[in-house]
Design goal:
Blueprint lengths: L5 H18 L7 H24 L7 H10 L10 H35 L12 H15 L7 H21 L7 H25 L2 H11 L8 H20 L1 H9 L1 H6 L4 H23 L5 H13 L3 H25 L8 H21 L1
Helix pairs in contact: 1-2, 2-4, 2-14, 4-9, 4-12, 4-13, 4-14, 5-6, 5-7, 5-8, 5-12, 6-7, 6-12, 9-12, 13-14, 14-15
């Protein structure tokens, strides 16, 4: 099953998206089309999640599982052995939901950053948010705060929040935020935090060093329901905020002067979207570590398949990003079983060849 795990995922996704594209060749985004694509990609998400539940080093009998699902969820009719039930619903299910939420958060943030900065290579970490989170997480690991409830996520999110305030404080003026100044501020802050990370790693003990390095490469193995609930809440709030401003973002992409002439409050829209995307990224990074390429390649893929209208791009990227990270995490926990790889390793192995393909495609 591991060998063919990618095949149904990409086959089903390409069929649903191509069908939608053929039925809407005029590329006009209507609510009907948004619902159609969203339902199709949600079906892909559910399918991938169901397959991921059955894939892993612990052997799960499929027929008893299906029988249990059809007979009901009550304790009396649930015929799965207690060991398999624990593996499925206490270990794999929270991790799958967690991966889906984190993937959706990073993909949505990538859509906003790429749109506002008008750069298809912009990613959710472009403002140095990952560096601030990483410094907070490593401090929590070294000092032992990680043993407290929400120790690492709490300190890591504080670091991300501090980074957001710092970057906007450097780049902002009383009237407007310039994209170039914002990017430069992000680069400067990120460089500082990179130096801080190297310093903290150099003084960390061997035990803490392993935990820190695993976190820096992305780790979903410690998914807890409290983290899932917190991240899911920010995902919902962030998505609603971004979608409300999706039409304004479409106009800003075409040009800020044009958007202002059409009645868009450009500076307010930019500030709201940048803050929303930054906070969503900070929350995702604080609970999962640094997972690269998800917020970079997923919006780009969805833009190629479904167009650049953000009313469709936001929900499609969120759903497909969640599905993609579930697939990546399933591979990460099974390919070297019983050991596990950081999920960031798998996303990097997928992302780098994709961009090589894009560069060669554009050069051809």
């Amino acid at each position: 099953m591991r060998k063919y795990f990618f095949l149904p995922f990409f086959t089903l996704t390409s069929l649903t998206l191509s069908a939608s594209h053929r039925s809407e060749q005029d590329n006009v985004v209507t609510m009907k089309r948004v619902l159609r694509v969203t339902i199709a990609l949600f079906a892909v998400f559910v399918f991938v999640s169901a397959i991921s539940m059955l894939v892993g080093p612990g052997g799960i009998s499929i027929l008893p599982l299906l029988k249990s699902l059809f007979t009901g969820w009550s304790e009396a009719t649930f015929s799965l052995p207690s060991t398999e039930k624990t593996i499925l619903f206490s270990i794999r299910l929270p991790r799958i939901i967690f991966a889906g939420i984190v993937g959706a958060c990073l993909s949505m943030a990538g859509v906003v950053f790429q749109g506002l900065l008008r750069n298809p290579l912009a990613d959710p970490y472009i403002l140095g948010i990952s560096g601030g989170s990483a410094v907070g997480a490593i401090i929590a690991i070294i000092t032992g705060i990680s043993l407290l409830p929400l120790g690492i996520p709490g300190i890591a999110f504080s670091g991300a929040l501090l980074t957001i305030i710092l970057v906007f404080g450097i780049a902002g003026t009383k009237k407007e935020i310039h994209s170039t100044t914002l990017l430069l501020a992000g680069v400067i802050v990120n460089a500082f935090f990179s130096a801080a990370i190297l310093f903290l790693i150099s003084i960390a003990s061997e035990r803490n060093l392993h935990s820190a390095m695993f976190w820096l490469m992305g780790d979903l193995s410690l998914a807890e329901w409290s983290d899932i609930a917190l991240t899911g809440l920010f995902l919902i709030i962030g998505f609603i905020t971004m979608y409300i401003y999706s039409r304004d973002l479409n106009l800003i992409v075409t040009g800020e002067e044009t958007a202002m002439q059409l009645g868009v409050n450009v500076e307010l829209t930019k500030k709201v979207l940048l803050i929303a995307a930054s906070i969503v990224t900070g929350v995702a990074v604080s609970v999962s570590g640094i997972i690269g390429f998800v917020g970079l390649i997923i919006p780009h893929m969805m833009r190629m398949l479904s167009g650049s209208d953000h009313r469709l791009l936001l929900p499609s990227s969120a759903l497909f990003g969640g599905s993609f990270l579930i697939v990546a995490d399933t591979i990460a926990r099974t390919i070297t079983a019983p050991a596990e790889l950081p999920v960031g390793v798998i996303t990097a192995l997928c992302g780098a060849p994709y961009f090589i393909y894009l560069l060669r495609r554009k050069a051809a």
